[in-house]
Batch of 2 targets.
Target 1
Amino acid sequence: MVQRKDLASVEDRDWPQRQKEYMKCQDCGASMGGTRGDYYSVPMEHIFKCASCGSQNVKIVVDVTTQKIIKS
C-alpha cells in the first residue's frame, strides 16, 4: 500500500538518491509517476491504485542496471 507521503520529493534531503523511483503495479506491470509533485492535488494519506487494473498492489521501484563481462 503506497501513499502519497511515501513518494520522493525534490524537497527531500535524499532526493539525489530517490529521484529515479516510480510506482509499478505488481499485478499488471503498469508504471506510474513516482514523485509527490506528480500528485499534488491528492491528500498525503491517499492510497494509490493502479490506473490500468485498479489493484492496490502498487510498489515503489527503481530500475537497477548491471554489467556482465562476456569476453575479455
Target 2
Amino acid sequence: MQLRKIIPVLALAAAVSATTVACSAAAPERPASETTDAAAGQTTEGGPEFCEVLLSDTSTAATVFVVMIPDMNGDVDLAGRAELVDRIESVPDGLEDDLETWRGYLDAVAANVDDPAAVFAAHTDEVEAAGSALFDAYTDSCL
C-alpha cells in the first residue's frame, strides 16, 4: 500500500529533476565580461556603467525603481534613491528618456513627501512604464 503512494511521488521528482537539468543544459553560457542589454535584447561586451552604479549599492538599487506609496513604504530613503539615480550617467540604449522621467518622479515625490495626493498624482502611466523598463534593464543586465 505504501509503495503505491511513493511511486507517483518518485516519478514526479524524477520529472522535475530531468526538466531542471535540461533547462540548465540549454542555457547558453556567457563570459563574465558580457551582459545582456535588456532594452535591445542584445549581448554587449563589458560591464555597463549603469550596472556598476546600481551594483555599488544593491540595497538601494533593489527599490530605486519602485514607486512610492504614501504610508506604505515605511522609512524610505528618497535621498538615497535620488543620489543613486543621479550617479547613473548612461543607460542601455533606448532608456535615456525613461531615466529622465524617473528622475523627475523622484524629485516630485521628494518635494511632496508629506502630501499623499501629490505623491499619487506624480505616479503617472509614463512614470510606471519608465520604472518598469529601468527595473527590467537592471534585473536582466546586472543581476
